[in-house]
Amino acid sequence: MTDRVYPSAKTNGTATAAPNATAANPNAATMKNQMYNNPSRIPYRPTPTSYHRHNRRRCSCRRCFCMCCFWTILSICIILLLAAIAGAIFYVLYHPQRPTFSVSSLKISNINLTTSPDDTTHLTTKLNLTLSTKNPNKKLIYNYNTISITALSNQVVLAKGSFPGFTSSPSNITIIHSTLSMMSQVLDADSVSSLKSDLKRKGGLPVTILMDTMVMVKMDKLKSKRVGIRVTCEGIHGQTPKGKAPAVASTNNAKCKVDLRIKILKWTF
């Protein structure tokens, strides 16, 4: 006898059910395929938690940096505003003015150029200088250190001298007498040529006076740090002395300018 093979009921059930499900909803498979096979669809990618933490940390650091910049700028603006207010109050109360200088007289006792056997030129000079300085302030006191004085002619140093320190009271005039000299100073070729040319001028030898010193300003119980000032006096012309009598330089057109070497004054109690 031959055995008969019967198909499984489960297989028949499955095979039968599938066509029925497709027949019940024929568009489901097509929509599913279109949804997953669409090339313009953006794939879903889950965002890691670390990215959010890094992003929050970056925003926090940026916020802190912006706040620091804001408070720093605000503090600087407040300090500048307070400094401007203090400066305005100081100016209204004291009305500070720079000291004034003027050249009273300049006498040239000796200007001598000598050439040695080794073809070097030596300069020997002697000048007597008289200046006056005035403190135009009514409440400020100027306290000067030793003043170094230099006489030049077109950047060629003619003579040097100094004047001891002093105190200039309000509305006070101080007279400065100083002897400037140079003993056998060696000059280079350019300086010799410039000086000889200036000595031949009809208007006389042009002379510039430079004064450098340190000054401290006092007012009531306040005093400033010592600051450097430079006084430049120009418009002086002198002749070469003849004989033993000194030659008197022309100072009618002399003008002196006072410049601060440090622009910021620091006040202390």
Automatic annotation (TrEMBL):
<dbReference type="GO" id="GO:0098542">
    <property type="term" value="P:defense response to other organism"/>
</dbReference>
<feature type="region of interest" description="Disordered">
    <location>
        <begin position="1"/>
        <end position="53"/>
    </location>
</feature>
<protein>
    <recommendedName>
        <fullName>Late embryogenesis abundant protein LEA-2 subgroup domain-containing protein</fullName>
    </recommendedName>
</protein>
<feature type="transmembrane region" description="Helical">
    <location>
        <begin position="64"/>
        <end position="94"/>
    </location>
</feature>
<keyword id="KW-0472">Membrane</keyword>
<feature type="compositionally biased region" description="Low complexity">
    <location>
        <begin position="9"/>
        <end position="33"/>
    </location>
</feature>
<dbReference type="InterPro" id="IPR044839">
    <property type="entry name" value="NDR1-like"/>
</dbReference>
<keyword id="KW-1133">Transmembrane helix</keyword>
<dbReference type="GO" id="GO:0005886">
    <property type="term" value="C:plasma membrane"/>
</dbReference>
<keyword id="KW-0812">Transmembrane</keyword>
